[in-house]
Amino acid sequence: MFTTADFLVYTQWAGILTLAFGALGVLGFILKWGIRFRLVGITGFMGVLTGGLFALAIVPFSHTQIPGATKFSLVYDNGGNQTVIAVSPTITESELEATLRQAASNYFSYGRLGGATNLLTIRARTIIHPQPGVSKPLFLGEVKRSLASRNDPEMAIAIYSERFAQLPKPSA
After folding, report:
1. How far apart are CA 42 and CA 50, in angstroms?
2. How far apart are alpha carbons 145 and 105 in whole angstroms?
3. pLDDT digits over 143-166, tens only?
4. φ/ψ bin of 156: left (φ > 0), alpha (ψ from -120 to 50), beta (otherwise)
5. Which has the closest alpha carbon to 140: 81, 79, 99, 80?
6. Quick one: pLDDT at residue 80?
7. Burial of 36 (C-beta count, 10 Å sphere; 0-12/13-18/19+)
8. What is the number of other CB atoms lying within 10 angstroms of the CB of residue 11?
9. 55-59, 82-86, 132-136: which has the minimum mean pLDDT?
10. How do strand 136-146 and strand 156-159 relate by DSSP bridges?
């Protein structure tokens, strides 16, 4: 996987090529070459490519792995301060805590709007089937984290222990 340092090197080379094509374009206009307008297009494309590579060079690609986290899927995300993830009905309380920490890390973004509290709330739910043909969502826990800082030391995790009794027991 590419690192930000790699993208910085690619940005430098793309910038050099952009300047070279720009100089060729100016030379093409001075000497009235037939490809002068193509050189302008190439220079513009290279400028956009250089800008994109520069953006990739300044954005960190760190993906934190939380030990003990299980697989989850995104069910709902309003793009602001509320998100819901789906977890397996066989999850344990310790796995749920690690999974909520993983989701809080994955879905953090400075671009989210947090409203008055400036907190992102991620709720974890599963589906249980109390009777054949009946499905019921069951919320097992939630995490509230700050949208102001990536490393939130005051992240509040709530596990609803009483709801784990409603989960199906694993068959032996």
Report:
1. 12
2. 9
3. 999 888 878 888 999 999 999 988
4. beta
5. 99
6. 85
7. middle
8. 20
9. 55-59
10. antiparallel
Length of the chain in terms of residues written:
172
Boundaries of every domain in the chain: 4-58, 73-166
Q: In what order do the strands lie in the sheet with 73-77?
A: 73-77, 82-86, 119-128, 136-146, 156-159
Q: Two tokens at 130?
A: 């109390």
pLDDT digits (tens, 9 = 90+) for 65-119: 889 999 999 999 998 889 999 999 999 999 999 999 999 988 888 778 766 678 8
Give the 3-state secondary structure of 93-113. Answer: HHHHHHHHHHHHHHCCCCCCC
Q: Are 126 and 87 in contact (CB under 8 A)?
A: yes
**CB pairs under 8 A, 24+ apart, for 104-108?**
104/143, 104/145, 104/152, 104/155, 105/64, 105/66, 106/63, 107/74, 107/77, 107/83, 108/145, 108/147, 108/150
